[in-house]
Write a structure and sequence with these properties.
The protein has a two-stranded antiparallel ribbon. Helix 4 packs across helix 5. The chain contains 13 helices and two strands; from the N terminus they run αααααααβααβαααα. The chain is mainly α and 321 residues long. The longest helix has 18 residues. InterPro entries: Haem_peroxidase, Haem_peroxidase_sf, Peroxidase_pln, Peroxidases_AS, Peroxidases_heam-ligand_BS, Secretory_peroxidase. It catalyses: 2 a phenolic donor + H2O2 = 2 a phenolic radical donor + 2 H2O. It is found in: Secreted. Its cofactor is heme b; Ca(2+).
């Protein structure tokens, strides 16, 4: 009996040790310059194109929702995750590859691609005048990347019930949902993803009635009915390059660009969070969003992580070892 208990205790301690390996400063002794290299690399690309910040943030989000935060979205290949329909618009792969190449020269086989992506997402928010946070590291890279597993990624067409279910399935609550969708304060979509809301919503031939009428005119001018579907549309009409709370004011006022964003106002629980962030007291609610976004990002970036002896540390982010 004592021997059995000893085995159980050893297994429990091993489980704890694996779990505890995700921590801030994980590479402080094994590759002390890793975080600085990621930061400088993201800065270099950001100076050329500030919109890359939203791309990197979205890349991390899409990675975490399939197979957990394990860099599986970075794998290239016809059947790989990044070639799934919801991932075809992802960008920023070259930033991660560049940072990885530099880090491999300094510390070969030490820093995971999954961690580089998590760090780059944080750096992107900071460069967009958003909050900074200490990114827990110690993730290992996954060995599976299948486009077929990306079907449950959140979609712009999702109802609020579907959005809540998809986030709940990953251990994220309604508050996390609204806070993380607030990342749409930077970035853009394209006319092809919103045109149905402007001209033929639910095949009625009319516009989505939740769109503010004056904003509807702006969107129609930007996206004519038979115009270029690839034309970019800012997700935050007021400050698309600044990480702020204007996105929530837009949702409150019927100026949400994506249908899924505007649906946050339809549900009592998510509406309360939108109201909180869209408050009228200047500064106070922006400060609260900054704090809660940090917390939500740390929570999201811990989804189903691989640590300890799980997975691998890739030599090149776009292919398995």
């Amino acid at each position: 009996m004592e021997r059995l208990w000893l085995v159980v205790l050893v297994i429990f301690v091993m489980a704890l040790s694996v779990q505890s390996q995700l921590k801030t400063g994980f590479y402080s002794s094994s590759c002390s310059k890793a975080e600085a290299v990621v930061r400088s690399t993201v800065e270099t690309y950001f100076k050329k194109d500030p919109s890359i910040a939203a791309g990197l943030l979205r890349l991390h989000f899409h990675d975490c929702f399939v197979q957990g935060c394990d860099g599986s979205v970075l794998i290239a290949g016809s059947s790989a995750e990044r070639n799934a329909l919801p991932n075809l618009g992802l960008r920023g792969f070259e930033v991660i590859d560049d940072a990885k190449s530099q880090i491999e020269t300094l510390c070969p086989g030490v820093v995971s691609c999954a961690d580089i992506l998590a760090l780059a997402a944080c750096d992107s928010v900071v460069l967009s005048d958003g909050p900074s946070w200490s990114v827990p590291t110690g993730r290992r890279d996954g060995r599976i990347s299948l486009s077929s597993q990306a079907a449950n990624l959140p979609s712009p067409l999702d109802s609020i019930a579907v959005q809540k279910k998809k986030f709940s399935d990953k251990g994220l609550d309604d508050h996390d949902l609204v806070t993380l969708v607030g990342a749409h304060t930077i970035g853009q979509t394209h006319c092809q993803f919103i045109r149905y809301r402007l001209y033929n919503f639910t095949t009625t031939g009319n516009a989505d009635p939740t769109i503010n009428q004056s904003f509807l005119s702006q969107l129609r001018a930007l996206c004519p009915q038979n115009g270029d579907g690839t034309k970019p549309v800012p997700l935050d009409k007021d400050s698309q390059t600044d990480f702020d709370t204007s996105f929530f004011k837009n949702v409150r006022d019927g100026n949400g660009v994506l249908e899924s964003d505007q649906r946050l106002w339809d549900d009592a629980a998510t509406r309360d969070v939108v109201k909180k962030y869209a408050g009228t007291i200047r500064g106070l609610f922006g400060f609260r969003f900054d704090i809660e976004f940090r917390q939500a990002m740390v929570k999201m970036s811990s989804i189903e992580v691989k640590t300890g002896i799980e997975g691998e540390i890739r030599k090149v982010c776009s292919k398995f070892n």
